[in-house]
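Could you join me in thinking about how sequence relates to backbone shape in a protein? To get us started, please write out a protein record for me. Would you write everything just below, so we can both look at the same thing?
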Amino acid sequence: MRPGLLHPGGDDGCPKGSLWGIPGAGCGLGGGMERKIRVLIAKPGLDGHDRGAKVVARALRDAGMEVVYTGLRQTPEMIVSAAIQEDVDAIGLSILSGAHMHYFREVKRLLEEQGASDILLFGGGIIPDEDVPKLQALGVAAVFGPGTLTQAIVDFLKEAVPRRWEAQEAG
């Protein structure tokens, strides 16, 4: 089989669809490489405080994840468009403005409209405890408040994203 072709699967232990003969790309001559979790971190709205989002983005990167940070003042449309273009596994919203219900609802709606409702949606910031069950009912997978250890976010994604991958493969 020529390098760069998709492997048909078989007795050599290479899964069907892995790249053949590309170093670090899957199987064959180059050996295997673990699939990386891809996360988009976004700051929706006019809130200009992004320190927390940057701390989380760096922690996820340091944990071996690929991170796309969209920067400040993103619209829900911009966030969902970037998430689809970047083929991310999860979107993390950082919201300090009090508009969390609106932004989570809007991002979730747009993901569903675009056929990307399997992208995990999580977030954090200044979110009242009484709103967490409402966000979970909308489909927000996790909400992290002030003082949350970044390792808790890393652990959440390392557990939740592989379940997403399994569902995609089964689906």
